[in-house]
Each structure stands twice: as structure tokens, then as C-alpha cells.
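=== RUN LOG ===
request id: a7f3
mode: sequence -> structure
chains: 1
length: 276
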Amino acid sequence: MTIPSTTSISNWQRATKHVEDDVRTGRYISAETALVFVGPPRMTDVGNIDSNVQAVNDSRTAVGGDTFGATGAGDMLYPVGFVEQFALQQFHNVQKMFEIGSRRSFQAGGRVQVTGSLGRVMFNGPSLLRVLYAYYPGIVAMANGKFLGSSAQPDSVSAHEVKGNSQKQTYPSIFFEAGSFAAALPDNPNTRYSFFVNLMSELFAHPFGMGVVMRDNNNRNYGAFYCEDCMVTTHSFAISSSSSLITEAVNFQCDAAVPMEFATDNDNFIIAPLGG
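=== RESULT ===
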């Protein structure tokens, strides 16, 4: 039997009625029913690159157990695994104005600042900074004449084919290497840049995008948002003798957290800017 809910103050009965309407345990949203992902700086960037450009690889085909496939990319959004903590804060600068002659005040809304943080466990794969910039290609001609990756040795996260003018319009010129070079191993003939740690690299002077999609425990779609034009402000790397794990964390700020529309159609995940 459904317990009636409280629809107004006049019919509030704390002993016999719920306040919320038609809420069941399975409709709660939890950490296991939310997904954090990264992508291009803005939602409108999806689809605004040259045709036949391969997007971020999310197939995650294991090669020797420690790398990922570089072909078969399907979309622009890369799911982030091993996330232990994600937080987003929005600060609205409200100015209070007082007047002489009364005790009351007026308020004027001002600018909004959006900041966040992300914590992740390290594993033998792309590091946190590399994952955040998964949208950027693994093959980049750097300003010092070197190449970040090569066509024969693609990056472990993404495998873009930059054609036409996309490289100049979309991707940065890098002078300082963002990551370290992983030497070839007997069970892994490919070399790769998977550990990004140098925040001084020009790569991190460019933005990325980050989003969250949420469902309830009955797999019902709930909502989604996308943080546009994110920039890393701090990066931390921690090793503790009392812990068997090494963790990374970043703080970031972004332009805005915008709502997104998403739906599931025949097991396909469809996502788009609100109203798009």
C-alpha cells in the first residue's frame, strides 16, 4: 500500500504520511550510479572538427594488461575510472547594499565562480592529468621540434588524426613536454606518454571539459551537467608509507557548469547540450 505524501502544510501528518511523493529506496542516486567523464572544452565543440577525425578511444582494449587500444574510437567523451572523490562548488558573489534610515538591505547578484576537485588512484595506465586531456591528441608536433607520440606508437588514451587546419585551431603548440616517456617493455612493444606531470607545459594553458551523468539505483536517468572551459589550478601527488596506494588529485576552475540532455535509446547513450 502506498503511503500518501504531504501535498500541503494543511495535510501534514508526520506519523502517517511521507513528505516527499512516491520515493522508494531504489530511486536514490549514489556514487556507483554516477559517471565522471572528460571531453572537449565546450559541449558545442563536439562535432565541430574536421570530418573523418578519430575521437577519443574508449574501447579500452587491454594490451599486455597495462595499455589501451588506440583504434576504434567512438565518441568525444572519455569515462574516467578509479575516481575516489569528485566535488564541484559554485560561488555566487552577492553584494549587499544598505541604506541610511532603515535596518533593511537590498541584494544584487554578481559574478559566479565555479571550482572543483578530483581525486584518483594511480595505476599502470594514463595518469590523471593525461586523462583530463584525453581530448587532445597523442600525436602533437611540439614547438621544440620533437613529437609527442608518433603514428607508429600512438598515445595510450587517444588516437586523433589531425587533418586540415584542426591542429592549429584546436590543439596547442607545446614546448615543454607534459609527460614522461615510457620505455618499451618485452610484453609491450609500444612506447607511450602516459604519465603527465609537468604543469608548466603549454598543454595545461588550454582548457578541457568535464561532465557527470547520474542515474538512480534502478538505472533510471536522472540528470547530467558539463563543466566548460576547465583549467587545472593545482595538482598533487601523494605517497604514504601507511598506504599501499599512490593517489593523484587536481583542483580546477571552469567557466560554467551547464545542464545537459541525455537519453538511452536501444542501449546507445545519447548526450547533447540542453536544447541541442
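=== NOTES ===
The mean pLDDT is 74.
The radius of gyration is 23 Å.
=== END ===
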